[in-house]
Structures are given as C-alpha cells and as structure tokens.
Amino acid sequence: ASFLDEWSFDQFRALLNRSNDDPNIKQLLHQDNVVIFLHLLGCDTNGHAHKPYSSIYLNNVKVVDDIARRTYDLVENYFKDNATAYIFTADHGMSDK
User: Is the pTM of this model over 0.85?
Assistant: First the structure.
C-alpha cells in the first residue's frame, strides 16, 4: 500500500508544477494561511494487513520518512519564504495484536 503514499506525494508535486502554468492555482497557493494536507494511508493499511513488525510495514515507514523529506524540500524550494510549519499526526499507534 506504500504506492498510495507515493501517489499522494506525486499529486501534490503535480499541483505545484501545474501552478507554474496556471495563475489561478498559483494565486490560491500563495494566499495567507494555506493548509496543505497529505493523507499517507500506507502505514495504516500495511500495519493492519501485515502487522507492525513485518518487512512490508517497516519498508512503508521508510517510504513515509522519505516522502516527508521530499515534501519538505519541495515546499521549501517552491515557497522560498522560510515560514512553513509542518505538523505530523496519526490516528493511533500499531500493535501486533
């Protein structure tokens, strides 16, 4: 299910790229107090399906870590304002029960 996480990131990157050619998107993205939400579902899906100590789940954690890094780089390079707050959250933990 990590492909779902990659898809979410790809959609966000595509939106930023489209804004270079679409002034309406660019205007929306450059308003004050914009919230961008990426729903990365892969870890939850793989954790329930394969349990949290499986190689599939642990690999998905690495995928999400990499997406967080790439998202940070993408946002910082796009907005160049040094004024972005990042919030990471989850709906619950994961056990093998």
Answer: yes
